[in-house]
Amino acid sequence: MSQSSTVFSLRIVAVVLIVTLAWDALDPGAGPSPLFVLASYFLLGFVCAAAFPGQVWLGVTIAVAAALTFEILQSLVPFRDVREIELIGKWLSVSGGVILELVLVFVRDVRERGR
């Protein structure tokens, strides 16, 4: 699989994750476990960072903006509210996913230089 098709696939996965997380954020009856939600945002950060090689800040911006926007939009949904701790948790989860991707890229680059 070429790098361009991998990047395209990662961008599709990022869009699917964003739509899924938006659906969850805007559904008044949704009640997934907090651990599942945080893991989903971690995955979003990881995938968005990986989907924009050479432009990681674009992926980071998309992931963080999505996490913050979804939490804020919850204030418009009946029976849902915005909690600062959830906002911080989602931001930290996205950041953790981004950091993992950056560490993996760094390790890969170090290995390639060593060859």
From TrEMBL:
Lineage top rank: taxon: Bacteria
Annotated keywords: Membrane, Transmembrane, Transmembrane helix
Transmembrane segments: 7-23, 35-52, 57-76, 88-107
Protein name: DUF2809 domain-containing protein
Organism encoding this protein: Devosia yakushimensis
